[in-house]
Design goal:
The protein is built from two helices and four strands, in the order αββββα. By secondary structure, the protein is α+β, with helices and mostly antiparallel strands. It has one domain. The longest helix has 9 residues. Zinc ion binds next to loops.
């Protein structure tokens, strides 16, 4: 599911999510990147930051970037 073990470990702890943006109902989304990958901040009230690239292995993981690649 994820690009590398480091990101998978974050997902295990719910510090990162691989999900559709509309399924993030338990917090606020900080940006408008077209992606299915989010970093999770905060505690009871969560903040989600969509990411284009994996912060560990640097691979492009967002849907938006993939779409841009397809259009080239
Ligand atoms: Zn990665």
């Amino acid at each position: 599911m994820s690009c590398c073990d480091e990101l998978a470990r974050l997902m295990d702890r719910d510090f990162a999510r691989n999900t559709q943006v509309y399924q993030l109902t338990d917090g606020r989304i900080l940006n408008e990147i077209d992606t299915e990958y989010f970093l999770v901040f905060g505690g009871e009230r969560r903040w989600f930051a969509g990411i284009n690239y994996c912060p560990f292995c640097g691979r492009a993981i967002s849907r938006g970037l993939w779409n841009q690649e397809m259009e080239k």
